[in-house]
């Protein structure tokens, strides 16, 4: 497993380096000032591929991964529910409605954090790799051209609203991230349920890192506009250190759930399509109340068997009956005669 993980990480890193070289037209469009960011993304690719391979090798994750891809490529599922996958991507990954059931405030903050990070990544990574370039269309004047892999995609006026959005997209992303991360940091400081089991390196460091990256990025804009470049060099180095640390930290901390979450969409699709296919749900062995579809329960039992859990038959009981049976077993074997 370790050799497979090492091979996967090395392969993905090499492919990314080749993509950077080819996408920047043999480094002609690559900005050497952004080299530390590019190196950090290569380490990020290695870490993500390595840990993802280790994660998928676990029995539960491997079964989830296989069922997800099987549901994704199933022609029967495509015929039975052609709009299921796009809707789940939109609601489960994009809007993340499952968070709204827990707390509207947490859902709103997570949306700010999610879309802010997504916008920042969509801008930063291609620029860092030399895939996107912005060049002046004329020798003088505000006209600019955006090129992707050397091909002109868009021409715009730097003084227009479109130009302002183009050059301040990262500032907008920073504002979104600061708002979302600040809420979660405040909640981690004040909410008793959140503070009970939190760990500094796992729960607080990611939020602090995001805030530092966003604040230093905004300070760069503030320095260039209001301070005429004062302290810009120091802020640029500080921002670079924060970004590189955050990118390298992603595969080894809480940020890794960003990579794991899309795999859960396949499992949601499997549950949805199996419910559409099976009109009759599997009934609880004790109370005969419906539990879930037979394929889903069988998949759960298979995972428990892979983990050598010898009580996989309990998957065929509803949650209430599980609690009742556990209580009866406690009275029978632990507190004998205490009825």
Folded structure, characterized:
With 339 residues, the protein is mainly α. 69% of the residues lie in helices and 7% in strands. It is built from 15 helices and five strands. It is elongated and about 85 Å long.
Main attributes of the structure:
two-stranded antiparallel ribbon; 3-stranded antiparallel beta sheet; single chain; elongated; 339 residues; 5 strands; mainly alpha
What can be said about this structure in brief?
The chain has 15 helices and 5 strands. The protein has helices spanning about 1-25, 35-55, 60-70, 75-80, 85-95, 95-100, 105-130, 160-165, 170-190, 190-195, 200-225, 230-250, 255-275, 295-305, 320-335; strands spanning about 130-135, 145-150, 150-155, 280-285, 290. The chain is elongated and about 85 Å long.
User: What's the mean pLDDT score?
Assistant: 84
- Uncertain stretches of 5 or more adjacent residues: none
Largest sheet, strands/sense/barrel? 3 strands, antiparallel
Strand content: 5-15%
Number of continuous helical runs? 15
Sketch the topology as an H/E string, one letter per element: HHHHHHHEEEHHHHHHEEHH
| Overall geometric form | elongated
Total beta strands: 5
Oligomer category:
single chain
Helix/strand structural class:
mainly alpha
Give the helix proportion (percent range): 55-70%
Terminal CA distance: 51 Å
Rg value: 25 Å
Order of strands in the sheet with most strands: 1-2-3
């Amino acid at each position: 497993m370790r050799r497979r993980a090492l091979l996967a990480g090395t392969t993905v890193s090499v492919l990314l380096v080749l993509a950077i070289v080819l996408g920047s037209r043999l480094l002609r469009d690559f900005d050497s000032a952004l080299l530390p960011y590019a190196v950090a993304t290569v380490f990020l690719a290695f870490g993500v591929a390595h840990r993802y391979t280790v994660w998928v090798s676990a029995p539960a994750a491997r079964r989830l991964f296989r069922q997800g891809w099987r549901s994704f490529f199933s022609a029967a599922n495509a015929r039975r529910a052609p709009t299921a996958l796009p809707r789940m991507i939109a609601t489960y990954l994009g809007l993340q409605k499952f968070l709204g059931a827990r707390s509207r405030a947490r859902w709103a903050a997570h949306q700010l954090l999610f879309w802010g990070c997504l916008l920042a990544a969509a801008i930063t990574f291609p620029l860092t790799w030399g895939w996107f370039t912005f060049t002046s269309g004329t020798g003088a004047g505000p006209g600019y051209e955006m090129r992707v892999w050397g091909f002109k995609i868009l021409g715009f006026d730097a003084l227009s609203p479109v130009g302002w959005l183009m050059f301040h997209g990262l500032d907008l992303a920073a504002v979104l991230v600061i708002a979302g991360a600040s809420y979660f940091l405040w909640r981690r400081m004040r909410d008793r349920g959140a503070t009970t089991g939190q760990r500094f390196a796992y729960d607080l460091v990611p939020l602090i890192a995001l805030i530092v990256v966003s604040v230093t990025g905004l300070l760069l804009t503030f320095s260039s506009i209001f301070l005429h470049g004062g302290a810009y060099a120091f802020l640029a180095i500080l921002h670079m250190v924060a970004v590189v640390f955050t990118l390298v930290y992603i595969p080894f901390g809480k940020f890794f759930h960003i990579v794991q979450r899309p795999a859960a969409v396949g499992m949601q699709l499997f549950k949805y399509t199996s419910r559409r296919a099976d009109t009759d749900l599997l009934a609880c062995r004790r109370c005969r109340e419906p539990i879930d579809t037979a394929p889903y329960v069988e998949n759960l039992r298979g995972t428990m068997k892979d983990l050598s859990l010898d009580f996989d038959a309990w998957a065929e009981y509803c949650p209430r009956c599980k609690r009742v049976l556990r209580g009866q077993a406690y009275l029978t074997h632990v507190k004998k005669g205490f009825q």
